[in-house]
Design brief:
Distance between the termini: 64 Å
Radius of gyration: 24 Å
Number of strands: 23
Number of helices: 12
Structural class: alpha/beta
Strand order of the largest sheet: 12-11-10-13-18-15
């Protein structure tokens, strides 16, 4: 007997599990799950995630985590939602996890009925149910008219890359679209910001930082359609070959969370230190693909980040060639700035010694990126190349679902080749002529 349960559902999509007899399990043909809200397909996809908690000697447990196909309203009640799974031509109706079922049932009650039910609930039960019942803010209209994008970052202080970061993103979203979490708020007195967030004894703890930034970004969706979460040495740009501006590229995106292609920008021998008044790609042409920099920076739905914002609850994939976004990571882009970053790191209070040692080593051990040697630069590949396609395939193959954390995670791999961002642009210019 095949059975399944929907555990979570909302504007971002749906997740849950299936249990099917081992005789009917086909690893190369996973069950197809479809979730409908008010007769409209909200999300569809395979149940192909291992779920040991519902696996038995006789049955295989499979999980699903599906992203919504497009922006939609949350379900108003249980009668609004239908979920199905198809296995070898057999379609079964999925049940709803008990607390989710109750939340959906309560969502269809009027105020008088809801008050009658609430009298029988404990404070903790009420809190959990209300969290599932409160609808997302209206996307448009009246006081809830939302701006397009906000930027959320963590900064040790206002030195090193922060002034350049501020100017770049200010030109994109305006000063009041930038939100900064910092242990040293006094250092940002000269900057107009949307918000400056701190806490007493705010130590650098990567897991706690990810938790805080995830919830801050999600909360800001009440006022912005998209959030962008990144570090101050990360600059998200539209693909240089797309010909689109940042906001135009954002408008073309169909996924609720967008991953970028990540490059460690490097200072080649003979290149001067960074000019803080000039664009990045006018000063640096070489980058090294790094899976750790392929981050889900951009989200228009509630998002839950891993430490370092490397991964989230969605299984990510890249946009088509010459489309989407790049992350230009500037850690290796300027020797002078690396020294300034090292000074900021030395002043930072960390939650543990291991994180402190790693952070300091990463900016002091090597003055230049190992791939900045002329032997590598002379063999640099275009951004759109077979080598880059292989790198992206490697990223995908390393993704696995971490069920306890509810995150898709991968391995951090630095590519064994350098990308020349100007070479392809020059070739395209020649073709255009």
């Amino acid at each position: 007997m095949i059975k399944g349960v929907v555990e979570k559902i909302g504007v971002a999509g749906a997740s849950g599990w299936l249990q099917l007899p081992r005789a009917r399990y086909r690893p190369d043909s996973p069950p197809l799950v479809q979730v409908f809200v008010s007769g409209k397909l909200l999300a569809t996809g395979p149940a192909d995630l291992p779920r040991r908690d519902v696996t038995t000697d006789d049955c295989v447990g499979l999980g699903f985590s599906l992203s919504s196909r497009e922006a939609s309203d949350p379900p108003r009640g249980l009668e609004d939602v239908q979920a199905f799974a198809t296995v070898d031509g057999t379609t079964v109706v999925l049940a709803f996890e008990r607390s989710l079922r109750l939340s959906l049932e309560l969502g269809s009650l009027n105020e008088h009925q809801l008050k009658a039910v609430a009298r029988h609930l404990s404070a903790e039960q009420t809190r959990k149910l209300v969290a599932g019942l409160v609808p997302a803010p209206a996307a448009d209209g009246g006081r809830n008219q939302r701006a397009t994008l906000c930027v959320v970052t963590y900064a040790h202080d206002a030195t090193a890359w922060f002034p350049y970061f501020y100017n770049y993103y200010r030109d994109l979203v305006g000063p009041h679209g930038i939100y900064v979490v910092t242990p040293t708020p006094e250092n940002f007195a000269g900057y107009a910001l949307g918000g400056l967030i701190t806490a007493a004894r705010l130590e650098f703890d990567d897991a706690a930082r990810a938790y805080l930034m995830s919830h801050l970004a999600t909360g800001l969706h009440a006022y912005y359609r998209w959030s962008l979460v990144c570090d101050v040495d990360e600059f998200v740009v539209p693909h240089p070959l797309s010909g689109l501006s940042f906001l135009d590229m954002l408008a073309t995106g169909r996924n609720p969370i967008a991953i970028s292609r990540g490059l460690d920008m490097i200072q080649a021998e003979g290149e001067p230190d960074f000019d803080m008044s000039a664009p990045i790609l006018e000063q640096r042409r070489y980058g090294v693909p790094n899976t750790a920099m392929c981050k889900p920076h951009l989200a228009r739905v509630p998002v839950s980040y891993s430490g370092g914002f490397h991964y989230c609850q969605e299984r990510m994939d890249f946009a088509a060639r010459a489309d989407g976004f790049l992350t230009l990571h500037m850690k290796w882009a300027c020797n002078r700035m690396r020294r300034e970053v090292a000074e900021a790191v030395q002043k930072t209070v960390f939650s543990n010694r291991e994180t402190a040692d790693y952070s300091l080593r990463s900016v002091t051990v090597e003055p230049r990126h190992p791939m900045a040697a002329p032997a590598f630069l002379s063999r640099a590949s275009p951004l759109e190349s077979d080598a880059m396609e292989g790198f992206e395939a490697l990223y995908r193959s390393n993704l696995t679902y971490d069920a306890p954390r509810g995150l898709w995670v991968g391995k951090h791999v630095v590519a064994p080749f350098v990308v020349d961002l100007r070479e392809q642009a020059a070739a395209r210019g020649a073709d255009d002529r």
